[in-house]
Records
---
Amino acid sequence: MIIGFMLAVQFQTTNHPVVRDTRDMWELREDLKKEQELQRQLLEEIRVYETTLESYQQKRAESKETALRETVEELRKEAGLTEVRGQGVIITVEPFYEENYVGPVIQTVSPYLLKRLVNELNMYGAEEIAIADQRIINTTVIRDVNGVTKVDNYKINSFPLQIKVIAEDAEKLYNRLKGSTVIEDFVLDGLQLEISHPVNTVVIPPYNDSLPIRYMKIVKAEKEEK
């Protein structure tokens, strides 16, 4: 058995001789240099990919931030918190006294008339409205407080009263307003409306009161579980 095992080992050794690297030192150095160059190229490619990835992630973060800023700005515009410029008309309201008029001095415009005018303007395509430089927004309240009309918290108690209007088609708004019966309603209250011809630039200021916020509350951030 022992003799057979030794013969088998000798046979395998004979059939699979040890392969020695017969390359000379110069060839080994050249191969080493090639391997080193390949490794350098691979490292350079990795650095390029890492730089590209980092740049992409940075641009992605900046893009999200830019998109967020643009969304916030758009929401501010929709809420009436930014100044607006555009073509439109300017309406001037003043007391209208007939000859030999004897009676009280008109000091304000009734809330009914102002709301009627605002509704008419909206029907005729008004996009933005300001009464006495008080921006009209969705939550604006026009009401009577102790005999004085107030637009939100601003008192309407002096004349002439300017109402600025911006519209996409200022000419159409002007023509429809000139033919409206709302002018006669103001005359019945001793007031006259002077409507300017369409102008290229009407400036309407931002809403300057605090916005009422409902259905919203502050939520404290929960601590993450470790």
---
Amino acid sequence: MRTYQTTTGLVPIRKHSGVRCVFSLVQVPQWRWLYLLNNKYRVHEVAKDFGKNSKEIADILTDYATAPKNHMQVLEDGELSVIFDYLTQHNQVESVESIYADVYHEPKAAAKPAQAAPQGGQKSAQSAPRPQNNQKPQNAGSQQQARPAQQQPAQKSGQTQQPAARPASRVPEKKIVDTRKGGDVNLDKYDERLEDLAAGKTKQMQAGKQKFQGRNQRKGGFQGGNKRRQEEQEKMRRLQLEIAKKTPLTVKIPDEIGVGELASRMKKTGAEVVKTLMKNGVMASLSDVIDFDTAAIIAEEMGCKVEKEVIVTIEERLIDTAEDKEEDLLPRAPVVVVMGHVDHGKTSLLDYIRNANVASGEAGGITQHIGAYQVQVNGQTITFLDTPGHEAFTAMRARGAMVTDIAILVVAADDGIMPQTVESINHAKAAKIPIIVAINKMDKPEANPDRIKQQLTEYELVPEEWGGDTIICPISAKTGEGIDNLLEMVNLTAEMQELKANPNRSAHGAVIEARLDKGRGPVATLLVQNGTLKQGDVIIAGTAVGRVRAMTNARGQKLTEAGPSVPVEIIGMGEVPGAGDDFHAVADERMARELVEQRKHEQKMAASGPVGHKVSLEDLFSQIKQGEMKELPIIVKADVQGSAEAVKASLEKISNDEVRVRVIHCAVGAINESDVMLATTSGAIIVGFNVRPDANAKDTAGRNGVDMRMYRVIYDAIDEIEAAMKGMLAPKFKEVALGQAEVREVYKITGAGIVAGCYVTEGKVERKAQIRLVRDGIVVHEGAIASLKRFKDDAKEVAQGYECGITIEKYQDIKQGDIIECFLMEQIEV
């Protein structure tokens, strides 16, 4: 075998490709060979690794292969083989044994005895390190001559004790690389430690081999050992079961739990749990629900450890109810509710404050909606809520009191304390808000404020001048007398309360009012109580969820955000929310819709009940007398949510011993076909408050015989239902529908006022008939025709398919797209 001598020793490297195997002993570091096997190997790199220059390598390739272009050329496998073979043939050593016999010996101290030299020589022969890699290549003879002089005596002394004719071995005794770099390290100590560890490991391995041999020799006892092992495992299993039985089972119990569910959690049978319940005096079946205390007693008696299960609902995860820090709170405007008896001047007072006239739009001067307004008073903002004064609107008054900070109680100086005044006082006291009494109508000659003060003391409202703490302000909403003093008292009371809120959080507040608009969809009036409501927020209110598409204030101006104490009107809800519901701005719309579905399901389960047969008010009393009627189902539709709730509450109150009024559906908007279908299947009466049925609903009701009653004042609805239930219903007039006309254009003519250019779509329009102006399904006016013309001539009637001009008596607010319904009131013979 041909070899190549290097200072690092003989490193055999196998050629990585090709048919024949070539072993070369070359001076190439191991990392270079790994690089060679996986990457490119250039001419100058080969020359450097062999200690030659690039010209010599290029000459070899020129003689025996292809001449390289330059020193950067990448060599192929065949070219590398030529170089390796050439260098191996031209750089040979005498024998491999002489290379391996060349070992490094540790220098010995001069004071060492000569008899210890054989041991030291032997040890040095076993533990001498290899020469370092940075030496130049040379042959064996020259390498031995280059040894340090101090090593030769030790080597000679070691060789004197050995036999002279020692056969050469191909296995090297030991090669050690000295990496100490001049530091003195006691290598003998580490060598002894290494030998001790190696000896211990060898003994363990030999003992292990003997153990395995002994197992194999016991062929007959193998099956017996397996059986014994199974018995031991079974014993361990039984022991673990005993320990588990002694350890009490931990059972998590919520506020309420079914008996069957409790049994499954305790890993007991239902019969055992029922038996334990009966021992404790509780008669319950598996399907019954028991409370936490009872379940905890039963579980502890049956040897279980009880923990309270805290169920985190979707509502708790979705709605942020954390308390605000004191440093985050900022001052906010006060919210003031105006309450009092009907026709005592609440809306007139607000009219004077905000210089608007709202009462003229109310039917009969009665406020039947709730309004929220924000005004600037002496540089400070105050939010006012106007509530109805009629007895039917108790819920709306209570709602107004609960969301406000100050209550203004309006009492007419000429009328005194009335029932709804007392109710307002009780609502304000229940809400624990301060009351400011405004004695209105002081401009009348019969005004008697002293009598009012005397009556107020009966309800624990003692005036300040009489030693009490109730602020009383005599005012006149007509002339403006005393109103500045009233507003000053409101600001003073608000300052005393130190009203604060955190605007830097998600908004929450209350729904003041809601309605369904034909063009814009559900419209809700919200009062933000904390946080800031922004355009685009997802809000949830009761069973309604949606995104705020647009916000407007009381003056109709668009807003992008609304802070605390700001009333806004929003659009974008999926359905009409309930008036009085709390609303919250949330981050996750998907989770909000899940919560809404859950709430709807709960309401549906609570409202499910039996339904009766079709009924009308005319034959209601006769059915009651015959024993057929036990329940009167009613469907209530109104223009706004608050009015719908008020009508519903008033009608449900008039139930008696023989019949119970049940409102099966209450909503806002015009009466549609689905309402009539519901009335048909449930035998209900439809009560419309300030709304009208559409054409399809009217036709379906006529075919199915559904009774629909339309009212504009709540007194009439209550009185008619009460009269029907008592058998006193004797209607004197009956409405006969003549036709409908659609307003196509509106003209303003000097002297005549507003003229509606109409097209008769159904029936006919008569000049002597009464009309009803309907806008988006809501009645906005009821009155009579002032004039009816065809072209320039007056006409008594205009038939279907013709155009005409109509003016309405004492009414000018006509808009394009309105519907004019024409009808006559005929007297019915009793």
